[in-house]
Structure formats: structure tokens, C-alpha cells
Amino acid sequence: MSRIATFCCVAILACCCLQLHGQDADAGKNWPAWRGPQANGVAPHGDPPTKWSETENIRWKVEIPGEGSSTPIIWGDRIFLLTAVKTDKTVDTVPDAADQPKRPFGITFPKNFYQFTVMCLDRKTGKTLWQKVATERVPHEGVHPDNDFASSSPVTDGKRLFVSFGSRGVYSYDLDGNLNWQKEFGTLSTRNSFGEGSSPALHGNILVTTWDQDGPSFIIAQNADTGELLWRKDRDEKTAWATPLIVERAGHTQVITNATNLVRSYDLKNGEVLWQCAGQVTNVTPSPVATENLVYCMSGYRGSALYALPFDQKGDLTDSDKIAWRLDRGTPYIPSPLLYDGRLYFTQSNEGILSCVDAATGKTLIERTRLPGISQAYASPVGAAGKVYFTSRRGVFLVIKHADELEVLAENKLDDDFDASPAIAGKELYLRGKKFLYCVSE
């Protein structure tokens, strides 16, 4: 559950797309990872509709089996997404829900088998092209009522598809659904059994995944061709859900991880820590986003923290004058920020209260302003063609102008609930609800 980079011109945008993902220029026309081609929520070639409803600008709407809040991934004429399908098959070793210990939020451990499923849909029609069950298992722990067993998003380089079902393994497929390899790294023990959600990050031929839990935490790098473990580093962290950001900066390919104890920059080559900084609050979920010079890490559960940190430093930056700027209000709990042309957009906690700041200076442009019609939001905002799109949990979508002042362009409504973050490719907006996947297009 999980973000963003901003740039000043098209040339820099294209360059950073290559740096962030090690992919060719086609990545910018697709949505190859959960926060898009630049890992910042922006679709540089996107221009989807501003207005839509159940009867307007819906190219297609298809029902998705099972449950999942992972973002749809788009490459070429295909859409990829994950889901967990509950079966009727059960085990006798897990008590019925009524006989289990009382847990926060009424969380129970499942006794049913789930099919952890990868789906590929036709982009033009929504028709399922292939559907593969990666594994069928009984999850070892439950999830928060607002989470599910398929909340990690896939990532692709246009040739290979990588998916993480966390405790159920990491898998690589070709785009026709043929399995290349699979690896497992044990089971995660998440805080209060809230469930998993961090997505893998891809750079060139290296796949990186964080395993932050209420147990021995670590970060791993794998050879994307074979799944071979390249390096593994222990982490002094509790459960977090932020997806790593990988960028080429200051002479290194840096892997930035956001977490409660420390934001860390790892050298992708060997996993050595380049620099680190404390200051985040707990239950860290928003993923980092970056400009050329600064990376932005934030969190918003039981406190607020936003740190703008330089790439060209070494050692511990905590409480030092090397921190470019910081903010202690209005930051998100679950949604990741949007970094769009020098503006950093984010919402407070899980509410529809918008802040926008200048990414270079931290100057406030929009100060904690209520977004009309948006009460709760788990999905992260996205941007394209001078517009910013916000998604509420109850199917209200707000489109505002990409500007220093709040200007609402449209308020839209669909008949589903939405926790997954949107994806944009070309003139299409893809919205995954609890039941349906929508293709919004004129």
C-alpha cells in the first residue's frame, strides 16, 4: 500500500523514467508499476476524461473474482492485476471464527484455502486473456477488515511480470502467463495481523522487496531473470507497508525505503546503507517519491512527518542541517503522495483533506483544504494532462486543476467501493473497485 517524482520538462521526465525503472521509453506510455512509469503517480502521456459516471465515458466494466486492492498494471494491450479467491476447501487445524481469541478490529485467522491469482485482461474489451493460480493456501494470519490478501501490485518491464504475494511467495511470469520462477522467503508477522501490502520494485535486472514485520525484518534483491538472491540485509524495523523507490542519483543506484525507525538509502549493487534518517511516525505506508535532488518520505498515523532528504549525503542525517526541509502536519496514513511538476500533493491521514506544497522549498500552496465529496480515501492520487484525480472509498472521484490553488473541475460517482489506486494509460483511466474493474474513456 503503496511514491512519487517530479520534473521540470519532458526531457527530464523521460530521463528519470529510465532511471527509475531501467526500462525503455515505452514505459512512459504505460503504467508498469503501482505508482506509474516514474513512480510518482504521474502519467506523462496520459489524458483521460474529466467526467464519467455509470452511464458516461465507461468503455467497459468487468467483474473481478475474489478480493484485491492492488493497482492494475498496464503494458501495451494488456492489463495485469492480482486477486485472492476464497474457496470452499477448509482445514480442521484452525478454529472457527467464533472460537478464536479476540483481536483488534475483529480480525480472525482464516481456515479456508485461497487461490492467489494473477489475471491478464484485454485492454480494449476487459476480457480475461489468461488467469493463473500462483498458489493455493490457507493464509497463516488474518487481515484488517479494510485489507485483503492481494494488496501488493505487480510490476513489469514489458517482457516479464513480477508479482509478490508476500508470505505466499514472489513469482515471475512472461506476459503470456508462463511461469519463469518462484521463490519464498518465509512468512510475515504483521502488526495486529493487519496483513501485507508492500509491492516489489524493479530496476533493470534487479527486483527488490522489503519484508518489514513484527519479527526479523529484512530487504532482499533478486536477479530478475532467475530469482536468484543477490543480497539480503537485516532491518531494525517493525511492520511497514511502503514500497521501495529505486533511482539513479549521486553516483549510485539508490534504493530508498520508508519505515518507522529510519528512512534508508541502500546501494542497489550490494545492499550497503549509503545514508539514513529518523523522524517518521509509526505504521509507515506511503512510498517515497523523488525529484532530481531530493527524496520525500512521509507518514501520518498517530502523528505527521514529511522529510525532504538529499541524495548526495552519507551517514546519519537525523536532526542535522542536511535535511532540506520538513513538515509536521497534514500527511497521509495509507495513500501515497503525488509529485507533479514541482508540486507535492497529499491528503491528511485517510481523509479527504488536501495539502499541496512546493517540492523544492516546502512552501505551502494549498493548506489542508477539504476536498468536496471525499470523506475517506485509501487510494493514492494520480495526475495527467494538467489534472489531479482523487478517489474516495465510497466511489466518489474528484478531479481538480493541477495548480497552486484548489479548482474543482469535476465530481464523479460510480456504484462500487474503491481502495485500489487508479492507473492511467493514454486516454484511459482504470479504476478497480471491490467488485468491478472500470475502463474510463471517451
TrEMBL record:
InterPro entries noted in UniProt: PQQ_b-propeller_rpt, PQQ_rpt_dom, Quinoprotein_ADH-like_sf, WD40/YVTN_repeat-like_dom_sf
Pfam family, one: PQQ_2
Domain Pyrrolo-quinoline quinone repeat stretches: 117-364
Highest taxon of source: Bacteria
Name of the protein: Outer membrane biogenesis protein BamB
Source organism of the structure: Anatilimnocola aggregata
Classification lineage: Bacteria, Pseudomonadati, Planctomycetota, Planctomycetia, Pirellulales
